[in-house]
Specification:
The structure is a single chain. This protein is α/β, with parallel strands linked by helices and 392 residues long. The chain is built from 16 helices and 13 strands. Helix 12 links the parallel strand 8 and strand 9. The radius of gyration is 22 Å and the shape is globular. The N and C termini lie far apart (63 Å). 48% of the residues are buried. The structure holds flavin mononucleotide. The site of flavin mononucleotide has 23 residues, from helix 4.
Length: 392
C-alpha cells in the first residue's frame, strides 16, 4: 500500500516536471514545438461545427490523409559541407521580393475560428512578411484586410455564376489594389464535406444566433450573401459548366496576374499556360474538393515537368514541416501554401499563434537547408530529393 502511494507520488512529480503539463497549464503560442501542436489546441477551442468545417475533407477524408502520407514518398538527399550557414530564404515572385517561400493560402470565414478572423492573420502576415491569399468567402472585406496587412492581399476568386457579377467582383478587387487573382477551379461541381456535416449535427448551439441560416459546409448562396465580398451580388458562385474559354475571358478582363488554383495534372497545367494563366497552384483544396486519393506532392513533379522551370508552379496541401517544404522546393515548386496550420494557430492564440506557426516552419526549413546543403531558396534542384529511394 505504502509502496503504491510513493510510486504514485513519484509519478505525479514526474508529470509535474513534464513539458507537456507545462504547456497544458500555461498555454502560450511560444510553447508549441511543431505546427502540429496547434491542431489539438484548435480542436479544443472550437465548437464542433466550426472544428468540423476546418478539419473536414470530403467523403472519407482519404485525400486529406494522402496529402500528408505522400510526403513520405520522398526522401531528402543530403549534401554536406557546402557552407550553408545562413540560407537565404528570399525569392522573387511576380516582381516582388518574398522573405520566404511559404505563404498563407485562402481559408474562408476565419471569424468562425477567432474573433479577429482574417485581420488576425493579416497582422501576423504583416509582422512576419508573409503573402496572404484572401478567400472570396472571407468574413472581412478585401479593403479592410489590405489595411491590416499594409498592402493588398492576393485574391482567391470563387467565380460568380454570371459574367456581369464576375466583372463587378474583379473590379472591386482591382480597386483594392490586388495584383494577383487566383481562380479556384477544383470545386466547380460542389463537394461532399461529410465529416463537417456530421460534426455540425453534434453541435447543440443555436447557430441562428450568429448566422442568418443553418450551417452549410457547401456554402449556399444565401449564406454567401451575408459575406462582405458578396455585397451587391447574388451569392451564386462556381459555374459548373466553365471551360477553358472562361480562362481566356477572365484573363482579358483584368491586368492582375492570373493563377489557376486546383490544377492536378500535366495536361491542365499546359492548358493553363496556353490560355494565358501566369502560374498554377497544384492543389486539391486541402482534400476538400474530390476524393482523388492523390497527394499534391505526388502531382507536383508531373506539373513542373510539363510547364518547365520558368512557369510559376505553387503547391499546397498537407505541408506541416520544414522538410515537407524542402521536398516541394526541390521538386520545382516556386513556393508552398499552408491552410489549416495557420488557422489552427489563429484559433488557439489569434495573431500570436499565426506568427508562431510561420516562425516554426521557417526555422525548420532553414535548419534542413543548412544540414542538407542548399544555400538559397533560389538554388533548389531535384538533386536534393528522391522518390521512393530513386533519383528523379
Ligand atoms: C477551412 C478551410 C477553408 C478553405 N477555404 C478556401 C477558400 O475559400 N478558397 C480556396 O480556394 N481554398 C480554400 N481552402 C483550401 C486552401 O486554400 C488550401 O488549398 C488548403 O487548405 C491547403 O491544404 P492544408 O490545409 O492541408 O494546408 C480552404 C481550406 C480550409 C481548411
Amino acid at each position: 500500500m505504502s509502496r503504491n502511494f510513493s510510486a504514485r507520488r513519484e509519478f505525479l512529480r514526474f508529470l509535474a516536471a513534464s513539458p507537456l503539463v507545462a504547456m497544458a497549464q500555461e498555454p502560450s503560442a511560444q510553447s508549441a514545438l511543431s505546427v502540429l501542436d496547434f491542431e489539438p489546441l484548435a480542436h479544443k477551442t472550437l465548437p464542433p461545427a466550426h472544428w468540423g468545417y476546418m478539419s473536414s475533407g470530403v467523403d472519407d477524408d482519404l485525400t486529406v490523409r494522402m496529402n500528408r502520407e505522400a510526403m513520405g514518398h520522398y526522401q531528402i538527399r543530403a549534401r554536406r559541407l557546402v557552407g550553408a550557414a545562413k540560407p537565404d530564404l528570399s525569392l522573387q515572385i511576380f516582381g516582388k521580393t518574398w522573405d520566404s517561400p511559404i505563404y498563407f493560402s485562402a481559408v474562408s470565414a476565419q471569424r468562425a475560428f477567432h474573433p479577429d478572423g482574417e485581420l488576425g492573420t493579416a497582422r501576423a502576415a504583416k509582422a512576419k512578411r508573409v503573402t496572404q491569399m484572401l478567400s472570396t468567402v472571407s468574413s472581412t472585406s478585401v479593403e479592410d484586410v489590405g489595411k491590416a496587412l499594409g498592402e493588398p492581399p492576393w485574391y482567391q476568386l470563387y467565380m460568380p455564376t454570371t459574367w456581369d457579377e464576375t466583372e463587378k467582383l474583379v473590379r472591386r478587387v482591382e480597386a483594392a489594389g490586388c495584383e494577383v487573382l487566383a481562380w479556384t477551379i477544383d470545386t466547380l461541381g460542389g463537394r461532399n464535406a461529410e465529416t463537417g456535416a456530421r460534426l455540425a449535427r453534434t453541435d447543440t448551439r443555436n447557430c441562428l444566433t450568429c448566422h442568418s441560416s443553418r450551417p452549410d459546409v457547401n456554402q449556399g448562396s444565401s449564406r454567401n450573401r451575408t459575406k462582405p465580398m458578396f455585397a451587391g451580388l447574388s451569392g451564386e458562385m462556381n459555374p459548373a459548366g466553365a471551360d477553358w474559354s472562361y480562362v481566356d475571358r477572365l484573363k482579358k478582363m483584368t491586368k492582375m496576374k492570373l493563377l489557376l488554383k486546383g490544377i492536378d495534372t500535366a495536361e491542365d497545367a499546359v492548358l493553363a499556360r496556353e490560355h494565358g494563366a501566369d502560374g498554377v497552384v497544384v492543389s486539391n483544396h486541402g482534400g476538400r474538393a474530390t476524393e482523388t486519393g492523390r497527394g499534391t506532392i505526388d502531382i507536383l513533379p508531373e506539373v513542373v515537368d510539363a510547364v518547365g522551370p520558368r512557369f510559376p508552379v505553387f503547391v499546397d496541401g498537407g505541408f506541416r514541416r520544414g522538410t515537407d517544404v524542402f521536398k516541394a522546393l526541390s521538386l520545382g515548386a516556386r513556393a508552398v501554401g499552408i491552410g489549416r496550420p495557420y488557422v489552427w494557430g489563429l484559433a488557439a492564440y489569434g495573431q500570436e499563434g499565426v506568427e508562431r506557426v510561420i516562425d516554426i516552419l521557417r526555422a525548420e526549413l532553414i535548419m534542413t537547408m543548412r544540414n542538407c546543403g542548399v544555400a538559397a531558396a533560389a538554388k533548389f534542384t531535384r538533386d536534393s530529393v528522391l522518390r521512393n529511394g530513386v533519383r528523379l
